[in-house]
Amino acid sequence: MLLRVTVHREADVFPLRQHGRDAAAALGLDGQNQIRVATSLSDVGRELVRLTTPTTLVFLLRRPPAPALLIRVETGETGGPGWDTARRLMDEVLAEGWATTLVKVLPVGHEPLRAEEVERLRGLLSVRDAADSLDELRSQNQDLVQTLEDLEAKQRELVRLNEELEDTNQGIIALHKELSDELEQTNQGVVALYAELEEKSTQLREAAEARTRFWSGISHELRSPVNSVLGLARLLADPEGDPLTDEQRQQVGLIEEAGSTLLALINELLDTAKAESGSLRPRLAPVDLPLLLARLHGSVQPLVRSSDVELVVDHPPPMPELITDEVMLGRILRNLLSNALKFTERGRVRLAVHLDPDTVRFVVTDTGIGIPEAEQNRVFEDFYQVAGPLQIGASGTGLGLPYARRLAGILGGDLALRSTPGEGTEVSVRLPLRQADDSAAVLALVVVPEEAVRTRLVTALEGLAERVLEVSDGRGALAAARRERPDLVVVSVDVPQVSGTEILSVLRGAEESRSVPVVLVGHDVDSGLERTAAGHAAAVLPVAAITPAQVRDAVRAARTAARLPTPPTEADR
Q1: CA distance 87 to 94
Q2: What gap in Å lies between CA 78 and CA 27, rounded to an integer?
Q3: How far apart are CA 18 and CA 23, in angstroms?
Q4: Is residue 288 within 8 Å of 279, Cβ to Cβ?
């Protein structure tokens, strides 16, 4: 406790006001807050003198962590304009039944008073004498003068800030105009640059199309004479033909070997052109991986040029049935193995298969000369070959790695390379592990005009669909597809009114049916029908092959194809 005072008469109000101001000043409150405390006590004191009994006020100091000046008024009567003034000027007015506490929070960082400082403050507050009304008026006038001076200083500061703000606004307006002009000029430049880029893009697209046409044309033109050369060489080497001397037989063998190499390069060039133009489509089907790797090992083994090099193809680990394009996968791995064998003088070339949670990895490692770090990105450029002693005499066009990476992308995977010069190279092909899906569809839509064929399909779909809806014409099929939203569509190519391929095109063009598995059924399954199915992510089933097992395989392939990215259309390319 700092002080206890009693208010009963008008003469007690002014000392109470002075006590409040002195306490606020001693506790570090600024002039404005000193006036707020003094004014609050002055107005509350006037309310207290109206009471019939004396009222005691106790000045208290609240310690940290929330230091404050507390003035407890021992009365529960808090009505009147004086109390309203206190509520506006003090930080809190707390009613506690028989007493009411006025709270003024001390400044942040207020240091707690030591015991001797508290005693000194008590002594200072206790020596105040009562004063008359004139003294009170003089004190209030002084407070008013100080308040007016503070307000005038703030007014001058406000005028100064307004002037600075006006200057700033003018600067902002000027800057905005300058930026607007610069932005307008930039926009004009961007428009011009965009037009130039559009023109360059058109030129590049035309150049790419011309290059693709050139590659395709040259490849087709070269294959015929090369095939003729190979045919003649094989006729000459035929044991049933005219006998040849050993030297002649060796020369014919060299002709055949060179022709085979040239034909392989031409085929590679043609496939690269197809991959670039987007016309190369995967034909997804279950792959017998152990058989594929065994055949690959046998076909690549003749490329081993030295007994110092060992070719190893590991047996694959146990894994779910792999669904991919077997031909494309074989070409990827053959390219990687042949590259590794070309540039490995001694040691080992190895192909290993690793099973990951959602992917399968084919890793080809060698102990060859390696690739410098600066060249490791460039080897994926068409026709680029790393210069080196082993490159001399090695056949190739520089298309193997770019071609393999494009095929991996078409199959939904990727190809990565790591190499250390003098130690060897590792190339990893990662493909999605598309497993056969045998889950039953809720609704299968069978669109076939011949009743006998429909019956065979419905029977073969037992276990693959919970319900089968049969339709015999194209218009009814499209209406049923929109109405029923089937989970599987089996459609004949020769459906009346709207053909099966047209139905497939409509299904793939609608967002709600774009990923629905579709099986095309045809009496004559040719390469054109297979290309149509591949281009629309569908599977093909010959009528003669309608058996439960064949239908199940076709449904698996259709489901896998439907999960692939949508092939680009002519408008997209």
Answers
A1: 10
A2: 26
A3: 8
A4: no
Strand partners, 490: 446, 519
**How does pLDDT run across 418-448, given as a tens digit for each residue?**
988 888 899 999 998 765 455 567 899 999 9
Structure tokens at 88: 């506006």
**What letter represents residue 293's amino acid?**
L
Which residues of 275-316 form beta strands (DSSP E)? 285-287, 309-313
* Beta strands, E only, 347-392: 347-355, 359-366
Q: Tokens 């003729």 map to which residue?
A: 228
Q: With contact defined as beta carbons under 8 Å apart, do 125 and 22 qualify?
A: yes
Residue the block writes with tokens 């506490």 = 101
Task: Reduce the secondary structure of 63-126 to three states and give it as a string.
Answer: CCCCCEEEEEECCCCCCCHHHHHHHHHCCEEEECCCCEEEEEECCCCCCCCCHHHHHHHHHHHH
Type of residue found at 197? L
From CA 150, how far away is CA 36, in angstroms rounded? 14
Cα 428 from Cα 431, distance rounded (Å):
10
In the DSSP assignment, the letter for residue 425 is E
Give the residue-averaged pLDDT of 280-306.
84
Q: Using the predicted structure, report yes or no on whether residue 354 has a pLDDT greater than 60.
A: yes
Closest residue by Cα to residue 68 from 107, 39, 96:
107
Give the span between the Cα atoms of 127 and 244, in whole angstroms.
140
Place of tokens 């896998």: 560
Max intra-chain CA distance, the chain: 149
